[in-house]
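Milestone 3.1: sequence recovery, worked example.
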């Protein structure tokens, strides 16, 4: 019997390769297997279309598009995708803004396995 994985597939959009690799390692250690990554919105769009991720880890500051614009696009085009915003700038205004735009979580960089595990467990309760 196959395990039901309501939070997969997972897509990570971050322009820093080390951040993506670290997040993938954390997610794999938590037992997730179907994980995709992209360095910008241009390369992420085809993955959004083809994989329909259930969870999206999204950096707020990307070279080609502001993460909040991507959040609005994802909420409009993929309403069942749970977006977790990631940023090194975790000001109250930044966090509140992403919540108001429909993010389901916010992780401040640098993050660790405990923070990622906590946000994934929270998502499992609403998925």
């Amino acid at each position: 019997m196959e395990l039901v994985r309501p939070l997969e597939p997972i897509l990570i959009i971050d322009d820093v390769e080390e951040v993506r690799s670290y997040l993938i390692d954390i997610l794999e250690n938590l037992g997730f297997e179907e994980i995709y990554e992209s360095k910008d919105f241009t390369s992420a769009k085809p993955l959004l279309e083809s994989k329909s991720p259930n969870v999206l880890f999204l950096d707020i500051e990307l070279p080609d598009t502001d993460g909040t614009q991507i959040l609005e696009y994802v909420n409009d085009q993929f309403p069942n995708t749970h977006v977790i915003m990631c940023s090194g700038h975790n000001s109250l205004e930044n966090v509140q803004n992403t919540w108001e735009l429909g993010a389901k979580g916010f992780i401040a960089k640098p993050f660790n396995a405990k923070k990622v595990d906590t946000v994934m467990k929270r998502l499992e309760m609403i998925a």
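The chain has a mean pLDDT of 89. The beta strands are 10-13, 35-38, 55-59, 82-87, 105-108.
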